[in-house]
Protein 1
Amino acid sequence: MNKDNDSLPQQFSLFDVESGAIAEAAGESKAPPGKFSNFIVYVDESGDHSMSTIDPQYPVFVLSFCVFYKRHYSEKVVPALQKFKFNHFGHDLVVLHEREIRKEMGSFKFTGPDHRNDFINELTDIIDTSNFILISCVIDKTKLQARSANAENPYHTALGFCLETLHEFLEEKNQSGVKTHVVVERRGPKEDNELELEFRRICDGANRKGIQLPFDVIFAHKQVNSSGLQLADLVARPIGSNFIRPDQNNRAFRVLKQKFFCSGGRSNLGEGYLDWGLKVFPSP
């Protein structure tokens, strides 16, 4: 702990005791009473989806879906993130952004290594404690370019996999017959229009199963200060970093391994997620 902060007690406990966690988990699988599913999905990416340039230090594109049970998200995750901001900044208007934290830009200019480590460890603990399902796709741009001179758009390829896997998860939870909203961050008019067209094309049947997918896309500005979008932003890069440097110590990815949609359900968390909740394309 930073010596300067030793005398300052934490103002807010981040997570209250969740005595109903087991009952809540069981409730996830019940058919929702209305026309919307019990889940909300937040999406973000890491890396550049352009195939014209490939960064040799980060030659991948990563798309991540964070799937939250709405009750847990609204009652536990959002308050925990708000308390975290109040504790560290004195207000809750700061938007957490992985790149700015990593490069110590803007509001994230730490007083020293201890301050930085305390901040990141506490934020990692929030991700660890939050219950959400992670669905992600890593596009190896170097291999994709070697396969074809006219390689497909990495974002669109990753989007197809993630939406198909999301549908499989919702089928498992008896939620596939109602609408689920998928929230993505705005990037620009051209990119947003292209993404929306591809999203609706996939949902209209251009998917592996050839079926209608009951999803609706929502575009949001970063300034809306969405807790879900900020958490999605924080998880994408550790996935890409682990793919590029699998032998490097990566605490963030060790935490995320427990979140991936996997073949064995809750009893097999952290195992059986490759080619299930985490897709690598082209396949190694």
Protein 2
Amino acid sequence: MSNLSDAEIQAIVERVMQQTGHMQTTPESTYTTGTLSNKKTVAIGADHGGFEMKTALIEYLKELGYESIDCGTGSKEAVDYPDFALAVAEQVRSGRAWRGIMIDGAGIGSCMVANKVPGIRAAMAYDYASATNSREHNNANYLTLGAGLIGINQAKLIVKTWLTTEFGGGRHQKRVDKIMDVEKRFLKEG
């Protein structure tokens, strides 16, 4: 029998509790490691290309009433985006953050990194429609932005939309379940 990580055990317990009706998540909270954590905590990170946008978005998150966990980087000095994309994903996976946001030059590379982490459903958004769709249809818990592709006003619109759009459930739930089943299948092979 293989050993399960704490995060895997947490995910199993949460699914069973939801399926049996013993746990309801509210818009204000999500289940994490046996406790309810505030839905208002967002992990945010950036590489050197997204540093300025990250700094502005941390202030914007505060204006919107969210707490943030700054996962770096702390300057415009060149760094490798996978390190920071992973740091944000780990905050979300562990339950210390409700959602994650990562900014690099295009948003693509960080999205690829984040989607390698079990339990993460990362989406790159570049406008209102892609932000809405990623939440309504895909229940994305991680957002990537391309600082070289969008300006700060567009980023703020995307972030606010993404944070406030609820998952549609219904027909979309079975599709999200299939996404997670693919992840489980390949985790077993690894």
